[in-house]
C-alpha cells in the first residue's frame, strides 16, 4: 500500500468548515502534520461560533463569510467539504489553476492499508453502517481482525485522522454520501465491498435531475476490481438498473433474507432491508446467520431515526428528524401502529410530496405543519386527498407545534416527528431539529 504523503510546511486550504465537526477534525489533522492551514467558509464567524470555539488553541488562518481566489492560489492542496457543491466557481477556479482538490474520505481511501466496506443510498445508510460495524466488532476473533473502524458521513467524525491508526489487519466501514463519492469518482477508486441500500428522489435542490444524483452514487462500485463485491437492493427500481454496470461480484439482497423468526428491536419493516444488506457483508466475510443474529436482533437503531423519546400519560413520542425526504416520512408512518399525530413540513429539496400526503391522509389521526418553503405544497396535497380536517395548524414556533400536538393527543396516541422535508429555516440542520424536539418533549408535564 502506498505511504501517506508528508504535509509538513505545506499550505492546506480547508474549503468549508461546516457545523457537523468533520471540517474541524480535518483542520486539526493537518495542523498536527505540521501543515500551514487556512480555513475558509461562506458562513460568518458568528454562524460558525461553535465550530471556531473548538479550534481556539490552534494557529489557524481564517477567511470567513466569503471565499477568496487568493487563498486558492496560495494552496498546495484544497480539502473540499462535502457541503461545497461540485459546481462551485471556486472549485472551477482551482481546477483551471491546476491546484489539487481532495476530500477527507477519498484521500483516506487512497492510502488505507486494509479493506474498506462502503455504504451509500438515499435511506438507511447510517443504520446499515452502524449495524455492519456492530456485527463485525462482535465477531472480531472469528474474522481474525484487530479492529473495526466506523466512519464517513457520520456527525462529528472525520475519516482522515484514522490514517494514523489503521493497519492491514483492520476493517473500515464507511458511510458515504453522494457528495463524498464525488471524491472517489475523481480518483477512480471504489471500496472493496460496496452497498447501495436504495435510491429514491432526494437532493433535487442540488442536482439537476435523478440521473445526476444516481450517477454520483454509482462511484461506490464503478471502479471496483473483479474480486471485489457489490451488494444491491433487489426490489428498488434504481438499484435494479445498476446491476448490469457492476464489474465485481454482484450480490442482491431483499428483506426476505432475514429469517422470519428473528425479532428486530428496530421499528419498521424497512429495517429488514438494512439488516439483510448487513447480513450480505457478514456472509462475504465468512460469518454464519447464527453469528450475526444477536447483533442484528438487539440493535436498538440510531438516534434521530424512529428514536423512542419517552412515554407521557400513555402517549409515545418518537423522533424521526432524519426523515428529510417524503419516502422517509411514508416509511415512518407505516412503521408505527395505532393513532399517529404527525409533525411534518419544512424546507424544500424540490421533491414531489404527493405520495407522502396520501400516506398522511391514510395513516395519521392528525397533522401539525411546520413552516417552510415545502409546506405550501404539502398542505395543498393533503387537502387534495381529502385530509383538510386532519390539519391542526401551521406553526413557525416549534415549541408551540409540539405542545399543540400534545394538547390534541389521547392515551394510546403516538406523536411522531417525521417531517419528510429538509430542516433549514427554523433549525440549523436536521440534528438540531431532533435535539430541540427531545428537549421540548422532556419538559412537557
Characteristic key phrases:
six-stranded parallel β-sheet, 445 residues, globular, Protein-Tyrosine Phosphatase, Chain A, Rossmann fold, six-stranded mixed β-sheet
Task: Characterize the structure shown.
The strands form three sheets. This protein has a six-stranded parallel sheet with strand order 7-8-6-9-10-11, with helices on both faces. The protein has 17 helices and 17 strands. The chain is an alpha/beta fold and 445 residues long. Helix 10 links the parallel strand 10 and strand 11. It has three domains: 92 residues, NAD(P)-binding Rossmann-like Domain (Rossmann fold); 192 residues, 3-Layer(aba) Sandwich (UDP-N-acetylmuramoyl-L-alanine:D-glutamate ligase); 137 residues, Mur ligase, C-terminal domain (Protein-Tyrosine Phosphatase, Chain A). The protein is 36% helix and 18% strand. Helix 13 runs parallel beside helix 14 and helix 14 crosses helix 15. The chain is globular.
Amino acid at each position: 500500500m502506498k505511504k501517506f504523503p508528508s504535509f509538513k510546511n505545506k499550505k492546506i486550504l480547508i474549503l468549508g468548515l461546516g457545523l457537523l465537526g468533520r471540517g474541524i477534525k480535518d483542520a486539526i489533522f493537518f495542523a498536527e502534520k505540521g501543515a500551514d492551514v487556512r480555513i475558509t467558509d461562506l458562513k460568518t464567524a458568528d454562524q460558525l461560533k461553535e465550530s471556531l470555539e473548538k479550534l481556539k488553541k490552534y494557529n489557524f488562518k481564517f477567511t470567513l463569510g466569503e471565499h477568496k481566489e487568493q487563498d486558492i492560489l496560495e494552496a498546495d492542496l484544497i480539502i473540499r467539504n462535502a457541503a461545497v457543491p461540485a459546481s462551485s466557481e471556486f472549485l472551477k477556479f482551482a481546477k483551471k489553476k491546476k491546484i489539487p482538490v481532495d476530500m477527507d474520505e477519498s484521500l483516506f481511501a487512497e492510502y488505507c492499508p486494509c479493506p474498506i466496506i462502503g455504504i451509500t443510498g438515499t435511506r438507511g445508510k447510517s443504520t446499515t453502517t452502524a449495524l455492519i460495524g456492530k456485527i463485525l466488532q462482535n465477531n472480531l476473533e472469528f474474522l481474525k481482525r484487530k479492529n473495526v473502524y466506523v466512519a464517513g458521513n457520520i456527525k462529528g467524525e472525520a475519516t482522515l485522522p484514522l490514517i494514523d491508526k489503521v493497519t492491514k489487519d483492520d476493517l473500515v466501514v464507511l458511510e458515504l454520501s453522494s457528495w463524498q463519492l464525488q471524491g472517489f469518482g475523481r480518483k477512480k477508486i471504489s471500496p472493496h465491498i460496496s452497498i447501495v441500500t436504495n435510491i429514491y428522489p432526494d437532493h433535487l435542490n442540488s442536482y439537476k435531475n435523478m440521473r445526476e444524483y444516481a450517477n454520483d452514487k454509482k462511484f461506490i462500485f464503478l471502479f471496483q476490481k473483479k474480486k471485489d463485491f457489490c451488494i444491491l437492493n433487489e426490489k428498488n427500481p434504481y438499484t435494479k438498473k445498476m446491476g448490469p454496470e457492476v464489474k465485481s461480484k454482484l450480490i442482491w439482497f431483499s428483506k426476505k433474507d432475514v429469517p422470519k423468526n428473528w425479532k428486530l428491536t428496530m421499528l419498521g419493516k424497512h429495517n429488514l432491508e438494512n439488516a439483510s444488506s448487513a447480513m450480505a457483508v457478514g456472509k462475504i466475510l465468512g460469518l454464519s446467520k447464527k453469528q450475526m443474529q444477536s447483533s442484528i436482533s438487539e440493535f436498538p437503531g440510531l438516534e434521530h431515526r424512529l428514536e423512542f423519546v419517552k412515554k407521557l400519560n400513555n402517549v409515545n413520542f418518537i423522533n424521526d428528524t432524519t426523515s428529510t425526504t417524503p419516502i422517509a416520512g411514508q416509511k415512518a408512518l407505516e412503521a408505527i401502529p395505532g393513532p399517529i399525530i404527525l409533525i411534518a413540513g419544512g424546507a424544500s429539496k424540490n421533491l414531489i410530496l404527493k405520495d407522502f400526503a396520501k400516506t398522511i391522509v391514510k395513516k395519521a389521526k392528525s397533522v401539525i405543519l411546520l413552516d417552510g418553503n415545502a409546506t405550501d405544497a404539502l398542505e395543498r396535497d393533503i387537502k387534495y386527498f381529502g385530509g383538510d380536517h386532519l390539519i391542526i395548524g401551521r406553526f413557525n414556533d416549534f415549541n408551540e407545534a409540539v405542545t399543540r400536538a400534545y394538547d390534541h393527543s389521547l392515551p394510546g396516541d403516538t406523536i411522531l416527528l417525521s417531517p419528510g422535508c429538509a430542516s433549514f429555516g427554523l433549525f440549523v440542520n436536521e440534528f438540531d431539529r431532533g435535539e430541540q424536539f427531545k428537549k421540548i418533549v422532556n419538559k412537557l408535564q
